[in-house]
Structure formats: structure tokens, C-alpha cells
Amino acid sequence: KIGETYIEILCFSSLTERAIARHEVREIEQRHTVDGPRQDVTLDEEDDVVIIYNRVPKTASTSFTNIAYDLCAKNKYHVLHINTTKNNPVMSLQDQVRFVKNVTSWKEMKPGFYHGHVSYLDFAKFGVKKKPIYINVIRDPIERLVSYYYFLRFGDDYRPGLRRRKQGDKK
């Protein structure tokens, strides 16, 4: 009986969080309509594209991002790095609401390519119809571990002078 009650509380808590998030999104949208839109531009379907590359560490994500920067420049995409606190990929509910609103309403930055160490976020939970496209690069788990070992031991070529907290002895 206690376990069932606990599960019911968790389900209720999750539903409550979603309802609050939807309400906050509606409030932000109403504020924008009262204050006026940032720009009176209607985007074409192909210009209303947002791609989110939620980077998985040690899967050639830096190399892929460098290629993406070159391709985005040629194809007139805006590139934005999603910088999370301490590279924590999980966002609070409040940050999720802000992120969804920014990604969907920032017309000046569309089409856009967002990249960073972020977890998948279901935009449909927040009532968004035009959802971003998510992409990932994956790698064999053992190869990732080997790459991480050498990364911690020797650093990387991308920022060779950076001293990392977990970096080991190079001897």
C-alpha cells in the first residue's frame, strides 16, 4: 500500500510539474503578445528549422561540431553553443521552459544549429507543434572509454594548454 501511494504521489508530482510548465509557457507567450513581437517576420518552412546536436562526450563531437560550423556558414544557419552549468546535461523545469520558449520563438536565429552537452527535451510536453530536429553521434562504448582515458591522461589537441581537474600524470 505504501509503495502504491508513493507511485501515485510521483505521478501526481510529474503531472503538476507539466501543468505548471505549460502555464509558464502560456504566460510568456501572452507577455510577448502584449509587449509586441520582437520581429514581424514570418519564416518560410525551410527557414523555421532548428537542429539540436546534444553532444555525447568522446564521440568525435568536437570534430563534428567544427564541420557543422563550416557547413552552417555556407548554408546560412546560425550556430549557437548551449552552455550548461558544469556541463550538467539535465535542466531544471524552469530552465526547460525558458529553453523551449527561446528555441521556438527566436526568429532572428533561425534556421539554427544548437550544440552542447544537453539531454533530450520533449518539446511536445510544452505544447510546441514545430519541434526541433535532434541529432547525435554514437561510438562503441569500449572505444569511448579508451578515448576518455587518453583524454584525461594527455588532454586534447583542441585546447592543449587547458589543465583539467581530473587530468592525470603524463609519465
TrEMBL record:
<dbReference type="InterPro" id="IPR007734">
    <property type="entry name" value="Heparan_SO4_2-O-STrfase"/>
</dbReference>
<dbReference type="InterPro" id="IPR005331">
    <property type="entry name" value="Sulfotransferase"/>
</dbReference>
<keyword id="KW-0472">Membrane</keyword>
<keyword id="KW-0333">Golgi apparatus</keyword>
<keyword id="KW-0735">Signal-anchor</keyword>
<dbReference type="InterPro" id="IPR027417">
    <property type="entry name" value="P-loop_NTPase"/>
</dbReference>
<protein>
    <recommendedName>
        <fullName>Heparan sulfate 2-O-sulfotransferase 1</fullName>
    </recommendedName>
</protein>
<keyword id="KW-1015">Disulfide bond</keyword>
<keyword id="KW-0325">Glycoprotein</keyword>
<keyword id="KW-1133">Transmembrane helix</keyword>
<keyword id="KW-0812">Transmembrane</keyword>
<keyword id="KW-0808">Transferase</keyword>
<comment type="similarity">
    <text>Belongs to the sulfotransferase 3 family.</text>
</comment>
<dbReference type="GO" id="GO:0000139">
    <property type="term" value="C:Golgi membrane"/>
</dbReference>
<dbReference type="GO" id="GO:0004394">
    <property type="term" value="F:heparan sulfate 2-sulfotransferase activity"/>
</dbReference>
<dbReference type="Pfam" id="PF03567">
    <property type="entry name" value="Sulfotransfer_2"/>
</dbReference>
